[in-house]
Amino acid sequence: MIALIDTHTHLYTEEFDEDRELAIIRARESGVSRLFMPNIDDTTVEAMLSLCENHDECYPLIGLHPTSVDENWKQRLNVIRKWLDSARRFYGIGEVGLDLYWDKTFRKEQMQALETQIQWALEKDLPLIIHCRNAFTDLMTVFEPYKDTKLHGIFHCFSGTEEEAHKLLEYDGFMLGINGVVTFKRNLLPETLKTVPLNRIVLETDSPYLAPVPYRGKRNESAYLTKIAEKLAEIYDVPTADIAYATTKNALKVFKKTAKNI
Question: Residue 232 and residue 243: Cα distance in Å, rounded?
Fold first, then answer.
């Protein structure tokens, strides 16, 4: 069976309350061997940890999502830091970043929160899972001082231009996270990816969001990762097994603290 890694899934959210265990079984039966779970904010940590404690294939991350940055962001970030410093084991800092799609009110605060969490990633030598929506220029402004550091991670849900892809790839320790968007009609991501080396790509679902074709519009889940792998096999003109091998290898480079537990 082809072994795949879902580097970004939120199976702990309420969308899976009715069939969470079945979703994990379906993922396993589809060949998805590991599920990395970025946190959302201070309200989701316990649900995420509870799931991960009961399933060895689930790996928790910790961070404050940019859309959760509000007038109380410092207090919320302090809660996240306490979790990070606790006896719990986390495998990355995420999901963090910038999101100016819905609201730009807390743009400055989002940048400050991101800067703080970058420092955490460096301090703990953990991968950083970056969310960026309608904020590419600001993201590059924040990231510029870290180009030659040990900072590493994933630029989650990449769907940008060829120029943006190559600017991100200048950060040697980072991969581009590719999800169901690559299967959508009338998007340019397949053409962009033809200019991106396969050794810089990881797979993700971002479930319950962004389900790939033919499930678009429905709740996403990790079992659907196979559809993304199949689309990448088409783009790179290689067998799906080669996509699985390469992206799994890439994911373990990012999440190096789990690489020995294969």
Answer: 7
